[in-house]
Design a protein that fits this description.
heterodimer, A: about 425 residues, Sulfite Oxidase, Chain A, domain 2, Immunoglobulin-like, five-stranded antiparallel sheet, B: mainly alpha, 2 domains, two-stranded antiparallel sheet
Chain lengths: ~425, ~190
């Protein structure tokens, strides 16, 4: 689905970093005798460290105010990294905002270190006035904030029962992005009316590029420098990235340094040999920008354990084409469907929470969710996708209805389906 | 020759754009906003040239220089083979060589890439992985020639340059179609 690269040079620093992070986390926990959260007052219990007991928190002065907040040592959600990406733990989150440090990552030559004072964005090509904007310049323009998801188009994994939502489709995350609308910059440079495409180029070591239709630039593209109330994270494109609501993650070029207006696409590597998908009759589909509607039940899901009785089925649904119209839930392997409750706000091109209260009689069954967006698009089954695209279908834009199997003992397992 | 040619082209483009700009408007202004905020600086031709490494499928942007597969093989063995295999056809995730008739399912330059210009552009901007941006244009032409030769698209004697590279017809080009998904009640 996505390319693998041998990156011997990168592996060592990552491991080193992880080791360093583990050491500091352990150190934090050693000093966490004064944690402020207790499962029961006065009850001695193991801490997150395993065997360290702690005393009644009402009898020990807690940690004093500090410069940066912390997670409870009992809460350790983590991304799941591979050599080329790192996945959001969807099953451990609440609501619709992904904590910035848990936002999924995908880069093609690592995360660059860019000094904000050195940062410049060049816009040139078919424009009246080619211009260079510093980060300070970008922040002076009228700003806009928008909550929307970014999802990698290679966001479906399958193959075994013991897979979490994070492993199946953890390459989607949502933030409140703040920045300047690209249309504002287009006006500033005077984009030529005959310009039909623009190249977006990053300043990472892959100098990654994508060609984007100019129309998207006028419509709702943003040069984002803010994420969830603070400067955008390095992994998400610090100090500035292109943000294209609803479009496949790769087009949202991070660390953006150059935009070139043109009257043709550039046919870069990422829009030809990658991020294209084989469909029927040996055809290769290109410029598949929009992310189709999708949903995933995050509770109950693997590796959670449930009990007979009331279960609130929970999850997220999203569409790159608009708002989620409804989410249908089946608790009997697809025989009957009922509508889930959507949690407001239901926003355009945004993760939307759904919930469905269900009484489980304890008998083995399958539960699944099906998203419908406001264009009338219904999230397909894997079978429908294969019927439409053929058995040789590529790994991009695969958004099937995902089923969880509930066993009589309360075990929840992913239901992988054969594809090829 | 190549540099001069590119320079002339750029001047011509600027002139055409200048003329058209007189007749055209972009988008209606936002009510209450000035026509221009005046933030940012005009980019000089030198600044643009220092960053502009784009190459279009019609060859626009290709630099001067040339190279062939024989020279490319030596560079490939020294700088690329560690990840991509001695011949490029080894069954690694980074496989580069397989023709349309090959049974390999891996997507390669020979069976999947639609434009030869992309090979040059990608090598120049991102390879080798441990030293991106370190290759000379001559080396990139040579590596491009070697990989196109290995994929049975050109001969090993062709001296690849800015003129003949964009003319190469790639085997997979004919399979490419534009996205036909439009939302609504259909699965595509």
């Amino acid at each position: 689905m996505m390319e693998d690269k041998n990156k011997p040079a990168k592996k060592i620093p990552r491991r080193t970093m992880l080791r360093a992070a583990a050491v500091s986390a352990a150190a934090a926990l050693m000093g966490a005798a004064r944690v402020q959260r207790a499962p029961g007052a006065g009850v001695l219990t193991d801490t997150a460290m395993g065997k360290t007991p702690y005393a009644d928190p009402t009898r020990i002065t807690g940690t004093l105010p500090g410069k940066l907040g912390t997670r409870s040592p009992f809460e350790q959600p983590e991304k799941k990294p591979s050599d080329i990406s790192s996945r959001t733990p969807l099953q451990e989150l609440y609501g619709i905002i992904t904590p910035s440090d848990l936002h999924f990552e995908r880069s093609h030559a690592g995360v660059p270190l860019i000094h904000p004072d050195k940062y410049e964005l060049l816009i040139h090509g078919m424009v009246e006035r080619p211009m260079i904007f510093t980060l300070r310049d970008l922040k002076r323009f009228p700003a806009v904030s928008r909550i929307a998801f970014i999802e990698c188009s290679g966001n479906f994994r399958s193959g075994k029962e013991t897979m979490t939502p994070q492993e199946i489709c953890g390459l989607t995350s949502q933030s409140e992005w703040t920045g300047v609308m690209l249309s504002t910059l287009f006006r500033e440079v005077g984009v030529h009316p005959k310009a039909t495409w623009f190249l977006a180029e990053g300043s990472d070591a892959a100098v990654m590029t994508r060609s984007i239709p100019v129309e998207k630039g006028w419509k709702d593209a943003m040069i984002a420098y803010g994420q969830n109330g603070e400067a955008i994270r390095p992994e998400q494109g610090y100090p500035a990235r292109l943000f294209l609501p609803g479009w496949e993650g790769n087009t949202n070029v991070k660390w953006i340094r150059r935009i070139e207006l043109s009257d043709q696409p550039f046919m870069t590597r990422e829009e030809t040999s990658k991020y294209t998908e084989t469909i029927r009759d040996h055809k290769i589909r290109q410029f598949s920008f929009d992310m189709d509607a999708r949903s995933i039940i995050t509770y109950p899901s693997f590796p959670q354990q449930v009990e007979k009785g009331w279960i609130e089925i929970r999850g997220i649904a999203w569409s790159g084409r608009g708002k989620i119209d409804s989410v249908d839930i089946s608790t009997d392997a697809g025989k009957h469907w009922a509508k889930a409750v959507l949690q407001e706000p239901v926003m355009d091109k945004a993760h939307t929470c759904f919930r469905y209260l269900w009484y489980w009689d304890g008998k083995p069954t399958e539960i699944m969710s099906l998203a419908v967006d406001d264009t009338g698009y219904r999230q397909p089954t894997l079978k429908q996708l294969v019927e439409a695209r053929g058995t040789d279908m590529g790994g991009y834009h695969v958004n099937p209805v995902t089923a969880w199997v509930l066993k009589a003992d309360g075990t929840v397992l992913f239901k992988p389906e054969k594809w090829k | 020759m190549q540099i001069k040619h590119a320079g002339c082209y750029r001047v011509a483009v600027v002139m055409v754009l200048g003329m058209l700009a007189c007749h055209t408007n972009t988008r209606p202004p936002v009510p209450g906003w000035p026509e221009h905020f005046g933030f940012g600086k005009t980019a000089t031709a030198r600044q643009i040239d220092s960053l502009n490494i784009s190459i279009a499928p019609d060859g626009k942007g290709l630099p001067a220089g040339s190279g062939n597969a024989v020279a490319g093989k030596a560079i490939y063995l020294a700088k690329c083979a560690a990840c991509h295999g001695e011949t490029g056809a080894e069954p690694t995730p980074n496989r580069l060589v397989a023709t349309l008739h090959d049974t390999a399912r891996t997507k390669t330059i020979g069976n999947y890439w639609p434009y030869a210009t992309t090979v040059f552009d990608y090598i120049r901007r991102a390879m080798p992985f441990n030293a991106p941006g370190s290759l000379t244009d001559e080396e990139v032409y040579s590596l491009t020639a070697f990989l196109l030769y290995r994929n049975e698209i050109i001969s090993d004697t062709l001296q690849l340059n800015a003129v003949n590279l964009p003319l190469i017809e790639m085997p997979a080009r004919k399979y490419y179609v534009n996205d036909d998904r439009h939302g609504g009640n259909e699965v595509k």
